[in-house]
# Entry
Amino acid sequence: MKRSLQITVILVLGLAAVYAIFSNSANDKASAEDVSLQNLAGEVQTIKKGNVILNFWATYCPPCEREMPALNAAYHDLFDSVQLYAINVEEPTRIVNQYIKNKEVDFPVLLDRTGELKDAYKITTLPTTLFIKNGEVVHTVKGEITEAEIKAHTKQYLK
# Structure
């Protein structure tokens, strides 16, 4: 009986490891088309194909808040070569506007009001940052990201 329990535990752990590896790399080869979302001013803004960084976030997410300064700094350094957008997921415009008003955020914030874009990219964790080159998701970071990581991934995947 002990032997069969050990084998079962090993199989379950093996399956969990395979799932973890697959779920972290599943978005890496997804395709991206031009996307239009509303910005904080209520205007529709289109994200064009090219070198794009999409950061999916929410106001209630502490790691999202901690990475905002890193995104802002990276935006200023990468402005000429990369489009960087913060995509708020399924929150009311009023809440997002209040939140952003209290932060130093210079990069565009767009609203995924229905979660359609989040679902299209199979985003299950906030924050999640996608690196997109010419319409192809080439790298995904689940969880908090630093300025150094943004720059390193940009250099590796978007140049």
Remarks:
- The radius of gyration is 18 Å.
- The chain is about 40% helix and 25% strand.
- Residues 2-25 form the longest helix (24 residues).
